[in-house]
From TrEMBL:
It comes from Sinisalibacter aestuarii. The keyword Heme does not apply. This is ABC transporter domain-containing protein. It holds the Pfam family BPD_transp_2. The keyword Transport applies.
Amino acid sequence: MTNVSFETSAALAHPREPAASEGRVTISLTNISKLYSGIAALSDVSVSFNAGEVHAVLGENGAGKSTLMSIISGVNQPNTGTIEFEGRNVSPLMPDTSAELGIAISYQHPAILDDLSVLENLQVSLPKPVFAGRPAREVAQEILDIVGLEIPLRTRAASLTVGQKQMLEIGKALATKPKVLILDEPTAALDKDATEILFRQVRKVAAEGTAVIYITHRLAEIRQIAQRVTVLRDGKVGGGGLVSELSDEAVLNMIVGRKLESAFPPKLAEAGGKEVLTVRNLSGNNFKDVSFEARSGEIIGVAGVAGNGQSEFMRALAGLDRSTGEVRLDGNALSHRQLIHHAAFMPADRLTEGISATFSVRENAALGALSSFATAGVVSRKKEMEEVTRTFESLAVKTPGMEARIKALSGGNQQKVVLARALLEQPRLLVADEPTQGVDVGARFEMYRILREISSGGKPVIVNSSDASELEGLCDKVIVFSLGRVVATLTGDDVTEAKIVAAAVNAHHHIVADDTEDERRSGKSGGAWRHFVQTDNAPALPLLIVLIGLALVGYSSNPNFLSPFNLYNMLMLATALCFISIGQTIVLMLRGVDLSVGPLAGFLVVVASFFVNDGQTAGTIALGFLLMLAGALAVGTVNGVLIRYGKFTPIAATLAMYMGLQGLSFLLREGPGGYISFSVTSVLSAQLGPVPYAFLFLVLCVVASELVLRKTRFGWQLRAIGSGEESARRIGIHNDRVAIIGYVVCALFVGVGALMLMAQIGVGDPQQGTSYTLSSITAVVLGGTSLAGGRGSFVGTAIGALLLTEVLAVISFLGLAQMHQYLFQGLLIVVAAVIYSTVRGRASS
């Protein structure tokens, strides 16, 4: 991202309001209602959005703002009501039809796919007309320039900051030149400079006739950017009007339904209390020599331009990251390991670090304090419920129930649950990184009150915030960071927004970081290597080295190991495993698995053994191959349908298929029988020197598959689903369709592998094939494909399959027992995992 500035520009202070196109309605919603499990998220909401106008939508967390936007973008459909676009009824909207109409949305939680590069994220998210026949890299770079992002297009999105992901999300929305632009809490994770860039682009598109729907919790932004406002409260329209005709007090009353007497609780009356926290020369990743002290009753603020070490410092202070220096709490020096047990940490990125998406609301809140609810190691559910309920009441957490999934809550209420967990831990130190990010004004008041109560009780509270006005109102002391160092410490009357901003801006020009830090920041030192080890194909390199080394070991023990005859046999065996493993790679990248690949290969050979025989007509032999193809298509389709529509887990669906296919194989043949035609096996086994033609065909398939994975929309979509299914759905990918196709293609590759198996064994044997299930998974894992989905490489899988085959050959040549096969395979997987994680970890640091 561009270098940021805390300066408030004239454009922000005195924005030019685009002329609203009164009477020219772009999109209108009438009597919209939406129910979730019988609970109304929206009730009879009617609102219109005009072309050329920035229309702010406000409301507390859970008021229905995000639900309304998801209906406009087509992600969800209302139970009742109608939607009109430019005067015609378009109900119900779906993501693809919404995009076709010209509706674009930037989500509060960006639909960015971590396992894809920045360029791939843009390619998979944006419709083809955006690129208009131009080079994708050129168009993508223009999008980054529009939103002020200075990052390489090949960067994997997982390495981006929250703010960079938000700007990339905004860039995606702007790139479509929409008629309706929805911005859901766009500045929640942005600094001042990025906010200014955003506002400039919003004004530009509004002036060009776009209807901008702007969701925010920050009242100051309404005056800067919006002409009209609509307030939602409890799923209903609570009021609205022209911004110029409404006071802040009136808007607040509409939002919360009550008066808020003060945004911030009273500060500490007098300084000079007992010193409870002392930090001396604390240094760590991206920060150095931080020193300050906190006295009883004080709230310490951390300020500065985003990316200057504040978040890293907060993690180190909570004991989550290693650091050097001294931290004393109540006079006692604590190591980073000890800090973990005494400090409670509220992360800025609640989705990644703050909540466990699969846990309930109660479990998320109580997770860090289970020991306090236990007697002799047994947790008292009654005590747990009482404490969680009491804490939720103090924070006004809105939840459909204690056992509801945490994802069912609005973003602000999720943040309250994170704070509740911190309170339940009863910490001696509270470290809060952007605690009010995405939280409405009413809830912020409650959070400020709770933070002040904690500090008044003698526990130090450290708050990092990108909102200087929040630090001014809440904190007794503020330390300002620049380039990882404290450049100013403000106390008492000096804690003002103007002085906080000035300290950050003035220091930004004369504090110089170490040369090594500059190199790391610029990304120029070792950039090519760093990028390579982060790619999906990086695991292929160490595998290839091991493959060559093992071949030399085999040759040194017996020169016949690399004889043409043995090379041919190894390559033929590896070819079958490679094709089956390629299929397994596809489903693992979808965050699935296919346990039926082994029995499917064996079953297809059994089917062929009834038709592909010597003495059979060409038509009968062709029918045998067609039946193999039909069998593979049927199995892949059934697996996909069971998983996507039957809601079976991948393991359950494919395990059932495993057993069914194995039973069918024994039903067709009780033992080996039906010899395969010699002319067919001869063709399949043909060779060029020591290399089978089938292996050369495999190499072509691997290259072609890799190109499809990296260069085509289907490949991006496949990886997108594994990387984040919800994000993939929000950008318009038909997840079910793509996933079913993935399972079908997997089965087709297994079918090709069955042809190789047929050439090797030459007979229909119901006991053959099952071992390929475990072997294929092993080869895929060795090749570096992530079991969590989203990342994988067909090149790595192919080399992994070759390596497994070579291990078997070496064991045979060395005269070792079969148990060594499993020992070597397990050792290879462990060593590969250690190498990949170590190399990637160093490259990303």
